[in-house]
Amino acid sequence: MIILAIKKVELRKEISKQLKIVGAEVSILDFKNKNFLKDLYNPVISAIVTDAKIPTIPDATTIDILNSFSNRIPVLVLKDLRSQQKSTGKIMDFSSNITIIDLGSEAALKGVISTLAVMNEKGAKGAKEEYQTIPHYNIQLPSQMLKENGALGIVTIDASNFSKLGVEYGNDVYVKVKEVFSAILFNMWGKKGAFRQTDLIFRQSLNSNTYVIFMNRSRNKNSLPLPGALEKIAERLSAFIQRELWKEIFSQSEERKIPTYVRKIPLVGVGFCGVINNPCIDSHEIIEKGLNASFKAAVVQPKRTRERQRELMQTLIQSEKMLYPKFQGIFHLENITKEIIEESEKLNSIGPLKNQIFGFESLIRIDQPSVDKDLKLMETMGIEAKYLRPDILLDMAKSTKVALELDQACLNHAIINSDNLPGMLMVNILPRNLYYIDKLAYIFNNRENIMFEVSESEAINNFDLMLKARNHLETLGMGIAADDFGKGFSSLERIIKLKPHIIKFDRSMIENIHADKVKQAYVKGMVIAAKILQTVVLAEGVERWEEAEVLQQMGIELIQGFLFHRPEDAKSIEEALQTYTVHTVA
């Protein structure tokens, strides 16, 4: 029997109604009744749900009574923490055995119902349809499982790193990511490849973003999973969770539940521990020690994921076929007309723009079939080859300390595959590689007409070395472009000091510039400054003719974007240029 001692009538009615649906026996306790203590100590009571304050007795007495009960049966305390802290400045000191549910949360009722459904005998058998969300943790539940089973497998999920999102994007984003993550775990419950419906998952505490799964009896024996099985389960869950998070990040904008500007989510740790019952030791103590050990293991697990990512990056870097470049055309803007663009779109070919070509930018890509075929380790990493975009690759390379090596591999692929492309080859490079460009001379094979793009979103920590590299490149027939101008570390002072041969405006400065007077004024000013510096301005990310037309009127020399050319492999570009004959559009 579940006792409800809740003052709010509507809340009490709703909880009672939901519990009866799942077959629970419910009794309402009236604290105004002088015999309420006798009713409270009824031996058939299986759980208690109560307000934080009992109006007929002092707070200290309430705490003592409920703390005492929490040593034997599950106790849920419902309270609005925000209003309580505002009025008293503190939270009542309940035992850690008590589950506290914040009524100030929108999902509070679902949490109450799900937690009580687990406490109900029928719910504990694994009927997931009885739960509305992930239940809240109460130590009495795994304690009972331990006594019944003789042993328990414990898997913990530590997503506390999500707090970094609150620092970077604000608390609203952090809360939304927590909600999405909780929904992912709830949907994993009973799903093939995740964990069984008869296992129990709980939100570990009121404010933390950590979860715990208690593995029910082994599929093979009424005991702990076999040696090594828990570790495999933890690894499988880790990979499953990471895949689900990547799916969210790469879902279509209208389907995404978190803001599109959130491009990555911190790694989630998954730990494990097995415990066995010992009648000479309090079961609560056994569970707590098991949880602590599991959470310690969860801290280590992301390090293993990082190590696998490092192995992946090293394999990609050394492979001759898993990485390959596509090339996007860069064009002289002055003589491009709308008619030329329309013909290019109609033919789906770069051919009509061949007389306007300045060069091509190399953009690295993943050969997905090769990675899927040759790297079975991707299955345990929690990321699929289709998600390995250039920005993801670079971020992974940075976090695994192989960014320089990846950068060098991309340079090598760009040079090898661009021999027959006309004009300038533009390639991205990290400042630290550019400082020692002579040591990478073997990659370039005495080739000239290379423009190295140094991202303005990267910090340049040694300007003297950068200036020396710039001057040295000129002697080799090469140059420097300031990439992504308009974001990150970009500034006019940095441009004046570096004197790059090309300034590339970031697409954020170009998008809808035809309708934005502020952007127009800013870009006009930079065009004037660039002429004084004898630097060429390139606008990238152009997707509309209206944008190109405004940029053309401003005197922008070079242009790049999907409006003109979508990235292609070098062979396709060469064939298009060879087969197309330029003619005058009437």
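The record above closes out task 2.4. Task 2.5 opens with a second protein, given below.
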Amino acid sequence: MVPMVLLQIKNVDFTLFTGEKLIESIDLEVNAGDFHIIFGPSGSGKTTLLKVIQRGLATNGVISGEMILRGQSMDDLTAGQIVQSVAYVQQNPNEQIIFEDVIQELTFVLENLAFPSEEIELKIAEIVNFFGMQSWLHEKTSNLSGGQKQLLNLASVLIANPTLLLLDEPTSQLDPLAAKEFIDLLKRINDELGTTILIIEHRLELLFPLASHVTLMQKGSVSLSCERQAIFQNLSVHSQLLKQVLPPALLLAYDLRLEDRPFTVREGIQMLQQLPLEDVVETKPITRDKKSVFYEMKNCSFRYQRLAADIVKNVNLTLYKGTITTIFGNNGSGKTTLLKLMGGQKQAYKGTISIYGKKIKKVNAMKQKIASLPQDPSVLFIEKTVEEDFKAYCKQQKIAEKTLLEIVDAFEIQPFMTRHPDDLSGGELQKVALAKLLLASPNILLLDEPTKGLDAFSKNKLAEMLLSLKKKGLSIVIVSHDLDFSAEIADGCTLFFDGRLLQVEEPHAFFNKTNFYTPTVTRLAKPFFKGVILYEELLLRCQQSMKENEYVSK
């Protein structure tokens, strides 16, 4: 049976009014009922493509080429028809919510499309039951968790029953459990409602098992577009890029030259069960030199109001020079507040903070050389271009021009210097924001969700930068939901729970005690090997075991 083509994109370009072309010669077909993933390096034009499809969001440039939706040119559709046919959910849930009340948010689209009041009530009742929103239907939107806000955004665009659902990194600000629940809901929407989904997402290990089609974009163009199963055949051509994003189980099958095509952890475990695997190595946790203690928090507590409950409760944390510590925890648990406490943006009402063994009465970020990267790095920029912002900051902080030139060169951000910060992609903005922080040569770097919204390619580059800074002696603290990224770079991991920090442990020791806050590779390896948290470790263990047992793949 030949699938029906829902959306045809023919030779589409998008050029900014400044003359810069963001996407070029895009040819793509999306079939009705598809679950279609778009991925590629930061700045490759993924978000621009989604905004061009929605059209109402691409207002800062010119669209050329042809787009056909259900056999009709989108040029002939009214704005209302496009809104009803093509729904869009963006990265940051806070930027999409308009109203104070949940029920107002759900009603807005239907009222704009002039649905009768009795039909509006019926549609709200349906969507609330489908999404399980009954308990917070009458809440203020400001009181919702990150996961609830994104769920509300999804419900508010689906309520008009669109044909095509576009999602741009919808789980980028969600913790791992909330992200899994959100993606499971997308599967229900695709399976049960038949809604066609076109999604950009960095949690590809969760999405690949659901996908019908995948599209790889590079430098504003489509490099590869195929059915999910065909991606294995394209590895030889695009191996450098595809190996960075494939689910570990599928990559393992490729590297071990097996015939299996596992996309999920379950399928990967079933594949490994057929191999003669034997665990002969045990990874020993790394111990730290106590003489390298750099920063200490002892019994620190914080609350926002005098009679309110503590957000941070008797927290103890020791940082070592030249190390990376990652902190996990659910959305709204207080991790960001803890970082603000460490960086001096908030002050503990109880407890002590010591740097180099000296107690500090009040943390001063500039004096103690502590730099903080917030979740939204755009707040660090106030000038019209990156270059103007950097120069103003250097003048204010009396930073030599030589330092500025060295940072720009080291981070390879010269192409971004003349651009407005808002015109940069998520990965590009993170890169220039980190560069700006390092102009002041900090000793401590506090990063709040630095991989939020970053694709696998940008995360690999960020990891290289952070490891380089670590070698130079910086102490880096990262609040993150990204378990795989943390497993790659961290020296210590901990969980923030109920206002407290649990014991900081070496990543191998930490992840082999957890079941939910666990990298994909560890879940795949646990039935067979102890102490495995990195793909390279799993591949080596498999290869050693297969060699010792003289196993030859078919």
